[in-house]
Amino acid sequence: MKNLAQAIGIAALGGLVCLLSACGGQVNADGQVISAGEVTVLVSERTDSGMDARGGGELEVVGGCLGASGSVVVWPHETRIVQGDPVTIDIPDYGRFALGDEVQVGGGYVLEHPADNDEPGPFTVGGIDVPDECARHDIFLAR
Fold first, then answer.
1. Are residues 104 and 137 in the same domain?
2. N vs C: which end of the chain shows fewer Cβ within 10 Å?
């Protein structure tokens, strides 16, 4: 009987640890806003779904944020900066890209500005608050 109680206690503790450490499909939902010198890299929260359009172009700085072809990009979860000068990122399942490289990722536009260029209000997407200077541009949420 004592062994059964110990086994149940260990199983319950293991289940709690698994739940708290993102086991079984639970994920850390936090996105990240990362600085690489004067460039801000926006990285989304983990997601199991999203849009499947192709987006991208030449990797460039757009309104202070890392983007492509004139749009700010919120990069896929676990994208990381691997070099600061020139800014180089590693995108899971896509590879490494530096400023000036051509990059194509799946996703879709979550903010497109009308021609009159109204000042945007606060904008949150992918688990992050997009900095105001970046939210003045179209935003592509990559996955």
1. yes
2. N
